[in-house]
């Protein structure tokens, strides 16, 4: 059987050898392709990549934070998650002229609630749209709760989806959603599958997290709604490799994938929104070493 991770390594190879050289908003430059699909059967193992270490606990904490509807980095920093700090830090430095160190900025966010409210807010990003989409009549629509109700009451529906691309609020977001549209499908055998349409994908740094979090969400929804996990299907539109990630990608491609781990959910809480990182474990995850790379802001 072909290892599922090889399709990701093939994507990196395609980007390196045939990607379109493009300038981008960060100024770093990318090699890009338009339109790519990856598919993983969750029965074959949990699709967290093994050819470099994925810090899955940090990724899972981010997904659980999004499911909570969070929008402030204080909630992440309290869990030692720093992946969203760059955007509010840049805004603070530009707005105040204070060239504060990241460590000092994060300390102030944690220690000073008023400072966090002013400078730690990311705007109505991801989970805020998922859980509190603002309707014209003033209602806040909980898209995730509606999907759960649909999965339980009408699993054959073609409207089992949620969306992050709220056109009217994009300018208020620290970063418009990259992974934007999720849709779900329940087979006649009772398997829950999920698809994600991603408008913009950082193939080296971000995509491994996106795949792992899509798989996690599918497992959690399956457990909550009484199904078996099925497949996940990832659709990337602008899929790109930053030019300063090329050597890292070549190193990763040269590695042989290892067996995929298994997700263990230790506890079934009363709702999807009550899981914590302590409820989750990846059994048998034995990846190759981490390959560091800089984030393009």
Summarize the model shown.
The chain is α+β, with helices and mostly antiparallel strands and 297 residues long. The protein has helices spanning 6-18, 56-67, 73-77, 86-96, 102-111, 113-119, 126-132, 143-153, 207-225, 246-253, and strands at 20-22, 30-41, 133-134, 140-141, 161-163, 179-186, 191-202, 228-242, 262-265, 280-283. 35% of the residues lie in helices and 22% in strands.
Structure in words:
There is one protein chain. By secondary structure, this protein is α+β, with helices and mostly antiparallel strands. It has helices at residues 6-18, 56-67, 73-77, 86-96, 102-111, 113-119, 126-132, 143-153, 207-225, 246-253, and strands at residues 20-22, 30-41, 133-134, 140-141, 161-163, 179-186, 191-202, 228-242, 262-265, 280-283. The chain has a single domain, classed as Thymidylate synthase/dCMP hydroxymethylase domain (Thymidylate Synthase, Chain A), CATH 3.30.572. The protein contains 10 helices and 10 strands. It starts with 5 loop residues before the first helix and ends in a 14-residue tail after the last strand.
CATH superfamily: Thymidylate synthase/dCMP hydroxymethylase domain
- The count of DSSP E runs of length 2 or more, i.e. the number of strands, is 10
Q: Please tally the helical runs, counting DSSP H or I stretches of 4 or more residues.
A: 10
Percent in strands = 15-25%
SSE-based structural type:
alpha+beta
Q: Rough shape?
A: globular
Named CATH topology:
Thymidylate Synthase, Chain A
């Amino acid at each position: 059987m072909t290892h599922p991770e090889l399709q990701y390594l093939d994507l990196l190879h395609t980007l390196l050898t045939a990607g379109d050289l493009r300038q981008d908003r960060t100024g770093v430059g990318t090699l890009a392709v338009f339109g790519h699909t990856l598919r993983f059967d969750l029965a074959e193992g949990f699709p967290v990549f093994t050819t470099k270490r994925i810090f899955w606990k940090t990724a899972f904490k981010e997904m659980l934070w999004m499911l909570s509807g969070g929008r402030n980095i204080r909630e992440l920093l309290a869990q030692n998650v720093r992946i969203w700090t760059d955007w509010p830090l840049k805004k603070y430095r530009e707005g105040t002229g204070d060239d504060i160190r990241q460590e000092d900025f994060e300390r102030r966010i944690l220690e000073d609630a008023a400072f966090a409210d002013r400078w730690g807010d990311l705007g109505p990003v991801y989970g805020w749209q998922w859980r509190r989409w603002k309707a014209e009549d003033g209602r806040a629509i909980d898209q995730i709760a509606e999907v759960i109700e649909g999965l339980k009451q009408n699993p054959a529906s073609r409207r089992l989806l949620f969306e992050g691309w709220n056109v009217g609020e994009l300018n208020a977001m620290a970063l418009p959603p990259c992974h934007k549209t999720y849709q779900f499908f329940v087979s006649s055998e009772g398997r829950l599958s999920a698809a994600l349409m991603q408008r913009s994908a950082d193939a080296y740094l971000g995509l491994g997290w996106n795949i792992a979090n899509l798989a996690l969400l599918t497992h959690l929804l399956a457990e909550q709604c009484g199904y078996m996990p099925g497949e996940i299907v990832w659709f990337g539109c602008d899929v790109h490799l930053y030019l300063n990630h090329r050597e890292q990608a070549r190193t990763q491609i040269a590695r042989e994938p290892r067996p995929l781990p298994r997700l263990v959910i230790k506890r079934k809480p009363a709702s999807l929104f009550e899981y914590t990182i302590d409820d989750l474990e990846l059994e048998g995850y034995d990846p190759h070493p981490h390959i560091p790379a800089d984030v393009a802001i």
